[in-house]
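re: ur question from yesterday

yeah so i grabbed the chain u mentioned. its 696 aa long if i counted rite. heres the sequnce exactly as i have it in my notes:
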Amino acid sequence: MSIKRIQSHPILNVPTDAEVPFTWNGTPLTGRDGEMISSALFANDIHVFGHHYKDGSPQGLFCANGQCSQCLVIADGVPVKACMTPLKKKMAVQSVEGLPRLPEVADKPVLEPPVEKSVAVLIIGGGPAGLSAAIELGKLGIETLIIDDKDRLGGKLVLQTHKFFGSVEDSHAGTRGFEIGTLLEAQLLSLPSVQIWLEATAVGVFSDGIVGVVQKNVYRKIRPEKLLVTTGAREKMLSFPGNTLPGVYGAGAFQTLVNRDLIKSSERVLIVGGGNVGLIAGYHAIQAGIQVVALIEALPRVGGYKVHADKLMRLGVPIYTRHTVVAAHGDAHVEGITIAALDEGWQIIPGSQKSFAVDTVLIAVGLAEVNEFILKARQWGMDVYAAGDAQEIAEASAAMFTGKIEGLKIAKDLQRYPGEIPAEWDEKATILKSRPGAPVHREPPPGEEGVMPIFHCQQEVPCNPCTSVCPEKAIRTEDDRITGLPYLVKGATCQGCMACVAICPGLAVTLVDYRKDPDHPTVTLPYEIWRDRVKKGQRVPVTDRDGAILGYYPVQRVVTNPKRYPGTLLVQVKLERAAAKQAIGIRVQEVQVDPSTVYEKAPLPDEAVICRCERITAGEIRSSIRSGVRDMNQMKALNRAGMGACGSKTCRPMIRRIFQEEGVDLESVTDRVDRPLFVEVALGILAGERKGERDG
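ran it thru and got these structure tokens back, copy pasting raw so excuse formatting
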């Protein structure tokens, strides 16, 4: 068994498949047949996949999504992306040292011109938006092809173990993301007019209306009448010294490892970014048994839902607002991270630097739409639509709605849907995209008798599943708005069924029962972390909303409802009357009050690598700008910035930011010219060389 597998998880089923042998640089190892090579290497505690030809810097996993080439390895003699290539029995995998060598070709290859396929609708992306659109089109019997570059449908839903917000009726609120993906896939499979291609990567959109697709090493030409792009978003990166060390990667890559592939990729992580992506990644880390030493955010308060931040704080994670990264440290892998406080002018406060010993830094500082397919299709005059994050960055619940809307728009344009798109769909999509409101202080209800729910949410977000599950219809939201804060209807009687506690996506509802012992009421707390910490009789540290420990109390009872609310435990403890309404969580890790070391001398920010593929630093970019360069194509010719395999997907936003920092108006900057292909493709595949599976 590989040494870094997650052996138990509070939410996910751990597979027990036998492992198959493979070799890494000649050393025998084992991995799961069909898992990505990168995950098999991480499971064997291997994080450095090779070294850059230019400066010998260690290369490892970065995006885990096929968007870059940081994870390049040689598999059975062929250069491949480790994060997108399935492991096979007895596969020989090698690191890339210097430039990869092309494989030897013994025989003349057999070339077959790619077959052209016409479809009414092509959907690029099998995430929440693409699935929802395909379902609407399939219900109407419209010929639809949906493609996705992964080995399963669901997109980012596959990575989400938390319960979703929104409403039960419209967006499966209270259901976990990966379960929503399964529900949508089941609907899609029942629709005969929809065809699904997995492991199929759209690589380009061309002037003759063709979309090039590579599926399992076979090149295919698709000619759609309508094109819907639901490719999601890619994570933004930060510029700081050490930002390319193995162990610095996006939250999405981390969630892929821990939630999709059940790899314990880290021991101690620090998260940069207080949006929902970063907050949720921290929660997922703790579920996987990984310590989160801190989360930092440059803004005065976190930008994600406060209930997500509250969950982390009461589990024992400190959150530092108005802080930024100074540098990551290590030789072949991250060994530490230095952060510093920011003043109101966004400058580092002298003497505020502090360092933590960590092996992973998760960057969650925002997302950028994967919109190159849309822009190119519009340039060629194709009939193209967008939904989900490819249209506008928002939550997955909103992506499902925009997918439904765009699906019906396409059907109307094809004259296959005579009705009108429900007006409330647009309204609901707008609400689900809305930013969270400002936190407000709420006093708990005054009564101290019977049994009552306590709502600890203090911020308006689109969420109301607690109103749907109450059998007494005793819970409502302010003004009956989905964003209104919940409350117990005056005069209503709570029966103590605990359904509202179990379904709450924010784990922000508790139940206080005064009936048996008014002076020591029983409090029911939602809990989704390590099972061995909450067995009956164990003393647990009970916290308030902000993570302060109210006291240590023995567990009286653990209630489960695996059929209706799988994964959520309802832990009951008896507290003093004065503390009962404040209790909301159980701490599972100790807060690291003091950083491990104080870091006094920061590296120059010019040392930060901007172009990962070509190892071009911020200093080199600034030098070009200060010499008068205002054309990104000229910059590429001068120093190769943006010339690498990823096609400037990561560095382009950071280069534009440096232009702004240098006082250059972006309107005066000529953007780089897009490549015809958005993803690297072997020339043999484009030429029609047939190897691998023929039919998808």
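noticed a couple things. The longest strand covers residues 218-229. also DSSP finds 17 helices and 36 strands in the chain.
anyway ttyl
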